[in-house]
Amino acid sequence: MSMKIQFLGAARQVTGSCHFLQAGGLRILVDCGLFQERSHRSRNWDPFPIDPASIDYLLLTHAHLDHCGRIPKLVREGLRCPILTTSPSQALVEIILEDAGEIQEEDARYKRKRHRKEGRTPPRPVEPLYTSKDVKAVLPLIRAVAYGEPVALNEEVSVIYREAGHILGSAMLEVRVIDNVASDPPVGRPRERTVVFSGDIGQWDQPIIHDPTLIEKADYVVMESTYGNRNHPDNAGVPEQLEKVINAAVEAGGNIVIPTFAVERAQDLLYHLGQLTREKRIPPLLIFLDSPMAVDVTEVFREHGSSMDEDAQAVIDSGGKLFKWPGVQLVRPTSESKAINRIKGSCIILAGSGMCTAGRIKHHLINNISRPQSTILFVGYQPPGTLGHEIVKGSKSVRIHGKSRQVRARIEQISGCSAHADQDDLLRWIAGFKSPIRRVFLVHGEEKAALELSQRIGDNHGYPVEVPEYQSSWTLD
Ligand code: ZN
Predict the structure, then answer these.
(1) Which top CATH class is 3-230+419-476?
(2) From CA 382, how far away is CA 414, in angstroms rounded?
(3) How many angstroms is it from 265 CA to the middle of ligand 1?
(4) pLDDT tens track for 175-230
(5) How far is the CA of 185 from the centre of ligand 1 (A)?
(6) Could you give the CA distance from residue 13 to residue 8 in angstroms, rounded to a whole number?
């Protein structure tokens, strides 16, 4: 029996990952993420192209919102099947979707208020995409699976979750399909075919998490291509860059404010800061992780120590603390967050959001951005249109909470923190397959990035490579 695949997101774009595989009599969704690009956000509201109640399994590669963020909507519309993911992802998805449910409700409230102010009556009442209640209905459907162990979905189809090295709990999927096992006597010879979904592929040698798995055999590969046309800058290592910026900031006598994402980035930074402190490469400083969500995520990391790589295990085994030592304060209540402003001398403040678009980071920027002795340190890409971008590009003043603020603090940026494989890493991963692949589908990349990677893979290996359009489908024989 032939298999079919349809691309329901992350097709010639980076977000909205969702692939629909029909194989061995099963209807399987791989991921169901939120469309986050402004230009494609309306797709979140479109009716789902297939009946959610007809889906047999949802296989989830990892907990990022662009991979899991549409699931509550699907559950509201009738999805009742098991959602399979790793145990750390299960814990992270709960935190991330609960936050997303609150944001959706808040967005709807804000829109209604704006309409009232403008005296507009929209054709339909403004409703959230989904609510916290819808998120609660998702959680009982999630089942944790172990890395490396085949899970039978039926007699013909099984899946193995492999380390993807992207964030804690992230996985690549090997879906194996055996034809003819159900017929008695068997019609022809049983035939096995493997479809590999890369999920998001991490960089090699990142802190805390394992390296991406090199898979040796696949008939079809669905692969991400975020950095398909570029490499990360070849700078000094992240710890060396951090050491330099922090020591200079301490010398200047000011705070170091670091806008950071709650998942993986915040924990990676704590890990590096812990190492630098233990090795006395930076003085012992007060470090605040000022984000209730990042604190919750850090707890998940602490509970899943066994999912971490050998270096992190070694720190734990030697009695070192990865995320919490006497200088570190994990901050939840707003009152404690406000108290940070009263600290004298240098301290390090990690707060969200990573692009300064919302959250507590704005308050810390207000308190530090006009002080010449303070440092604002960026550790990730700041896309145009964000406050982070305004600051990084060297604006002399920026608007925060409706008021113009002079930028007098030192603005620093370090590289190498990306959770994504770059072009060289992606080529390294695809070169890991030992036998020819019948067809590669590139997803999760801007068109330019995906097309360039497709050219490179075609040149290097001679495999047929497709960059599918949104909702296009293919028969896999
Ligand atoms: Zn991701």
Answers:
(1) alpha beta
(2) 12
(3) 12
(4) 999 986 655 565 667 789 999 999 999 999 999 999 999 999 999 999 999 999 99
(5) 44
(6) 11
- The rounded Å distance from CA 420 to ligand 1 centre is 8
Residue 66's CB: how many other CB atoms inside 10 A?
Answer: 23
- Ligand 1 centroid–CA 122 distance in Å is 35
Q: How far is the CA of 201 from the centre of ligand 1 (A)?
A: 8
* pTM exceeding 0.85: yes
The CATH number of domain 238-413 is 3.40.30.10: no
CA dist 32 and 71 (Å) reads: 6
Ligand 1 center to residue 88 CA distance, Å?
14
What are the structural domain ranges in the chain? 3-230+419-476, 238-413
Q: How many CB atoms lie within 10 A of CB 324?
A: 16
> 166 CA to middle of ligand 1, Å?
7
Q: What is the pLDDT of residues 111-170, one digit of tens each?
A: 898 888 888 888 888 899 999 999 999 999 999 999 999 999 999 999 999 999 999 999
pLDDT of residue 183: 59
